[in-house]
Amino acid sequence: MARDNCSSADAAGRALSRSDDSGDLETRATEAHHESLRLWLRMLACTNLIETTIRQRLQARFGTTLPRFDLLSQLERAPNGLKMGELSRRMMVTGGNVTGIADALEAEGLVTRIADLTDRRASRVKLTAGGRRLFQRMAGEHEQWVIELFGGVDASGKQQLGGLLAQLKQHVGRSIG
Amino acid sequence: MARDNCSSADAAGRALSRSDDSGDLETRATEAHHESLRLWLRMLACTNLIETTIRQRLQARFGTTLPRFDLLSQLERAPNGLKMGELSRRMMVTGGNVTGIADALEAEGLVTRIADLTDRRASRVKLTAGGRRLFQRMAGEHEQWVIELFGGVDASGKQQLGGLLAQLKQHVGRSIG
DNA sequence: TCTAAATATTTTAAATGTCAAGTAAATTGA
DNA sequence: TCAATTTACTTGACATTTAAAATATTTAGA
């Protein structure tokens, strides 16, 4: 996964560390701007570290991948299956990608494609019994991994982090919407 | 990019929302556990949303990709170039990946590979003059994008978020180290 | 001095991801 | 009723990513 480790963030860090704390508005405005870059890089590094850890464990323990786990997770709570477009939306990836991941899971016998009764263009993807059982085992361990990885932040810290992320996400959504 | 949108997080959400608030220790412990999952999913969704936005803008504005931008960024602050292994460490990707990205940038004339004088196995990658100029233009816009995207969080919120992420990252590092 | 082990990078295969084009089907509106 | 437009999904090309293996070189130690 790429991370935009922009060097100007480092430059910002160096500028901040040697700032004479003069406090003039322009300096403070610049500091605030660079804070965004540093924050972004830290968030990216943190998310990637956790994600890489989870990917490696899924591969080692179950011989599967995170996108496949993700798709199974979406289907687990949809007893009647989901359409490809809906999977695309929930997984936040393009339709072509969902096609490929569903193909792989179908080949493994974990999901099945069912023609849509009302729209011959569409198909629904549904968990097989085996897929459901496997998913339940993976989900149990996955949950323990996440609990362990987030164990260094106490309850109030988690509340704060959740709130700040929600605030950030809302603003981002408005910026690009 | 996959996200481990585990359905047990949703189950946690539903359980939490209909909890009778009895407050017994087991219920509260379970709630705290599920909070980790929800937090992880929110963090993942938020990071991916920002990352996707930046990727799309880099492609639209400069016809380049985030990993290539990332590599250029690493080189911008290394006037003498960097070895492949060092790029791999800084970009947090495997060596094989760095080879491919460097190949692409070299083909575009943005970087050049130089044989290492002290180790014939090694080579150093260095920005060309054109690469440096292009990177500076991209970095300027990239910084503005990040500032805009993080504009919804005030200075104290950014400080808090940064601190919490640092705490989280430190714990994760210890968990997997 | 020489061999074994370690290191640096590349290559290969597989998986995931986007974008654009293609195909089939549904919807819209004249 | 029928043609144009839109929609659902697949396909193909390209880029990125990993893990493992291969190749070349350096280092360590007997």
Description:
The structure is a homodimer of 177-residue chains. Chain A is mainly alpha-helical. Chain A has two domains: 1-62; 64-177, Arc Repressor Mutant, subunit A, CATH 1.10.10.10. Helices cover 70% and strands 7% of the residues of chain A. Chain A has seven helices and three strands; from the N terminus they run H-H-H-E-H-H-E-E-H-H. The first copy, chain A, has helices spanning 7-17, 25-62, 66-76, 84-91, 95-107, 129-149, 155-176; strands spanning 82-83, 111-115, 123-127. In chain A, strands 1-3-2 form a three-stranded antiparallel β-sheet. In chain A, helix 3 packs across helix 6. The longest helix of chain A is centred in the first third of the chain and has 38 residues, at 25-62. The two termini of chain A are 25 Å apart. The model of chain A is unreliable at 6-23 (pLDDT under 50). Chains A and B meet through helix 1, helix 2, helix 3, helix 6 and helix 7 of A and helix 1, helix 2, helix 3, helix 6 and helix 7 of B. Chain A binds a DNA duplex (30 and 30 nucleotides) through residues 1-2, 55-56, 59, 65-68, 83-85, 88, 93-101, 104, 116, 119-123.
